């Protein structure tokens, strides 16, 4: 039996909200190292040259702009429900039959070991592989998975992310990707901004380059941001390829994605299924109302498929 990497997720419950404090602590160290210890003194220093002032202004402006976007995206991922299955949701069927299904007495469906209304069972397509979550006791929409950390089914679940203390699913995946994007830009900026100070840390041993606190913050800020920039870059590349192929981390892990992947609508449409069609919304953690109306995938229940690829999985 293949080892399931998602099983270790159950242990993540313990970590909980501590991760939000960890993220904010890393931001605080970086803020202190870049703004307080390095570039405000460079801007206001009595011997500051024109070049020093312009560089300091540029770094401070970019740092604060990216930090604002990073925190906006971060708390959007943390606070947005990734999407849960509506109580009355059932696999696609004729509307008349669905209405009929409600008053009928329940019948036992042996294969599933649960109670399903008879008419509902008969109305399902013969070749359909109905997905049902025994833990939540409801049908699973397409691309939905049960998260053992959250203890519920998540629409178009990508993964449970320990850094955002939330599942990443249909309704917050874009926000998560933007969080990765701005984190990469911010950590790269901090790494480059602290590089001259980091080099000075080792070379200017005789020069008085600041208090031990400032030196420690500069050293820690540089090392942490370099490590994050490199690892986030790896994640960004991985997710760029997932978005391009319209698949999730779980689907890629389960190797469902093939040349005939039924959700692959071509790169442009695949991108719109996550980011929406309105360009002015692509870089912010929000959707245009028009996109929410026009793109059912953003709600996480219906996903357009390639017309030429049949699929029996609901
Ligand atoms: Zn479930
Ligand atoms: Zn989860």
TrEMBL record:
GO terms for cellular component: membrane. Residues 128-255 form the Palmitoyltransferase DHHC domain. Keywords: Acyltransferase, Membrane, Transferase, Transmembrane, Transmembrane helix. It catalyses: L-cysteinyl-[protein] + hexadecanoyl-CoA = S-hexadecanoyl-L-cysteinyl-[protein] + CoA. The chain crosses the membrane at residues 12-33, 53-75, 175-195, 215-237. It comes from the Eukaryota. It is a multi-pass membrane protein. The keyword Transmembrane applies. InterPro entries: Palmitoyltrfase_DHHC (IPR001594), PFA4/ZDH16/20/ERF2-like (IPR039859). PANTHER family: PALMITOYLTRANSFERASE ZDHHC16. Belongs to the DHHC palmitoyltransferase family. The DHHC domain is required for palmitoyltransferase activity. This is S-acyltransferase. The lineage of its organism: Eukaryota, Viridiplantae, Streptophyta, Embryophyta, Tracheophyta.
